[in-house]
Design goal:
By secondary structure, the protein is of the alpha+beta class. The chain has 14 helices and 28 strands. It has an 8-stranded antiparallel β-sheet, sandwiched between helices. The longest helix is centred in the middle third of the chain and has 15 residues. Strand 4 and strand 5 form a beta hairpin. Helix 1 packs antiparallel against helix 12, helix 2 crosses helix 6 and helix 2 packs across helix 7.
Length: 557
């Protein structure tokens, strides 16, 4: 499932890169996929595309970095699909609604009589709340304390889930706010399977996989699936263990192939070539806002309006795999991306779905280059939404804008206080107070105006950080487990003179030293400061990210 150190990492909200016109999208997808594999970022991936009546499945790279599997992945190669499993869970819900077995506004507690489900001032959590990521439940249960860091859900039992829910107190009303929760979808899977009197795996087979002819889709690996299973790799290209999710299966336990996922995609695009499951139209209908510009949520599926196009999509990631599935709402284009590394492939998927950003009108650009003093007036951090901060900093030739979890992009002056992007069709309008001080900005994109108050000074840029080398023996001092929040840990490890950080439920990422006890990440804008006792032993760390300082004491060995 998709879990990241970044508080928000949704491609396309502001700064997804430009792509080619629709008729060239298969070529552009191939180019981006080849580049990703050739760079060594991902050992191998498979891309399935639909363009009208044309369908294509292409493999890139290798099934494994190891020498034992030197062949290219293909239509039958099996991958963990992570949080894309949530769309299956949502489809099971929609199917049961159409059959009259449940209603979306049913309280979860009515389907799980042996559980104690928390409420907020009498407001119960409903099935719709779970399916739209608005349940008010946290991302992960606080009592998720994995014995195996590389298989974090394997030993989490149904009794653990009951214990957590019995003691948890909601901090807001269900339905009030979008907040991505793997726990919520795991609970939804449990509720549906309990109500049906069958396991989650059996429900998926009976209602989705078998009717669609998806022979290589499921939780337990068949002989065929095992023989075609791609080796999972972390972000550094090292092979890792597969994930097992016996209790929270509805959140991310499924495995599948590109051939099977193509059939699944066809069904959602209402192709005449495959059976359309009952309730399928329901899952795609926007149900609730997310608080992010142009982005709503249906039942699991995100419905995004960008560049004049509406796209329905979901992504996923486990410790060794990444996935993306999406299609245009008009049913003309669709894409599935499956990769054997925990490295995001969202940009590959979005390349297939979004039309090109129109070129910026150079005539609208002011001819006057702004001075460093003028640029400094705009620098700062602006909050677009909870967890979504736009960092504005001064570059050599102008302003640089970076949304939480996304690449940095240049913005160019059109007139005083108005700047525009060239990589996307978007602009920034800065507002000043009575004293002529920049107080806020408004992002204009896709017909939406999103105000963002200035909340502080600009965050330091990772590009300006100077990397230094520390001896391996010194790096080993930092190795250990650190608890940042209940159920959320950072595991720090040292391998061959390189320090790594791994958050609960995701792959590891390299850390780079900039001083003794101070490190930074390159995959996201975040830093770690390690704390020492009087005797010099490491006692904890602080994660610095998005203007927040999150301390984490070191766990006892």
């Amino acid at each position: 499932m998709k879990i990241s150190l970044a508080l928000l990492a949704v491609c396309g909200i502001v700064m997804c890169g430009p792509v080619l016109a629709a008729e060239d999208f298969a070529t552009s997808v191939q180019k981006v996929a080849s580049s990703r594999v050739n760079s060594g970022a991902i050992p191998g991936l498979v891309v399935a595309t639909i363009n009208g009546r044309e369908q294509k499945i292409q493999g890139f790279g290798l099934v494994s970095n190891g020498k034992s599997q030197p062949h290219q992945p293909d239509a039958n190669t099996v991958f963990e699909i992570g949080s894309v499993s949530k769309t299956f869970t949502a489809l099971l819900l929609a199917d049961m609604q159409v059959r009259g077995l449940v209603k979306l506004d049913d309280a979860v507690a009515t389907l799980l009589p042996t559980y104690t489900i928390p409420q907020y001032q009498g407001r119960a959590i409903t099935l719709l709340d779970l399916a739209t990521q608005t349940s008010a439940l946290p991302r992960l249960p606080a009592n998720l304390m994995p014995k195996q860091a590389d298989n974090p859900y394997a030993d989490y039992t149904e009794n653990n889930l009951r214990d957590f829910l019995r003691s948890y107190q909601l901090t807001r009303a269900p339905g009030a706010k979008y907040e991505y929760s793997n726990l919520g979808f795991g609970l939804l899977g449990q509720a549906l399977s309990t109500h049906a009197g069958k396991s989650y795996a059996e429900l998926v087979q009976e209602r989705i996989a078998r009717p669609l002819g998806m022979a290589d889709t499921g939780i337990t690996l068949t002989t065929s699936m095992q023989s075609n299973l791609a080796t999972g790799h972390d972000a550094q290209g090292k092979s890792v263990a597969n994930w097992d999710m016996p209790t929270l299966a509805g959140a991310g336990a499924l495995r599948s192939s590109a051939q099977d996922m193509l059939r699944y995609l066809q069904s959602h695009m209402r192709s005449k070539d495959v059976k359309v499951p009952a309730g399928l139209q329901l899952v795609q209908q926007p149900q609730r806002p997310t608080g992010m510009p142009g982005l709503q949520i249906g039942l699991a599926w995100h419905v995004q309006s960008a560049r004049g196009q509406t796209v329905v999509w979901h992504n996923g990631m486990t410790g060794g795999y990444a996935s993306f599935i999406g299609f245009t709402a008009d049913g003309q284009r669709g894409v599935v991306v499956l990769a054997n590394a925990s490295v995001s492939v969202d940009d590959i998927g979005m390349t297939a779905l979004l039309p090109a950003a129109p070129p910026a009108d150079a005539s609208n650009t002011t001819s006057d280059k702004l001075s460093a003093k003028q640029l400094a007036e705009y620098t700062g951090r602006y909050q677009l939404a909870p967890g979504a901060i736009l960092n504005i900093s001064a570059g050599q030739d102008g302003l640089l804008a970076q949304l939480t979890g996304q690449p940095q992009a240049a913005v160019f002056p059109r007139k005083k206080d108005e700047f525009f992007y060239k990589v996307v069709d978007a602009s920034l309008q800065f507002e000043r107070d009575a004293n002529d001080k920049v107080l806020s900005l408004t992002l204009h994109q896709n017909g939406h105006a999103s105000p963002a108050p200035r909340i502080g000074d600009a965050a330091p840029e990772a590009a300006k950080r100077t990397e230094i080398q520390l001896p391996a023996e010194q790096l080993k001092q930092y190795a250990g487990s650190y608890t940042l929040a209940p159920g959320f840990k950072l595991i720090i490890s040292e391998k061959a003179g390189q320090l790594y950080a791994q958050a609960t439920g995701q792959g590891s990422n390299p850390l780079f030293a900039e001083a003794k006890d101070k490190f930074f990440l390159k995959v996201v804008e975040a830093q770690l400061s390690f704390l020492r006792q009087a005797d010099g032993k490491i006692s904890g760390l602080v994660l610095h990210q998005n203007g927040r300082d999150m301390p984490g004491p070191r766990d006892a060995d």
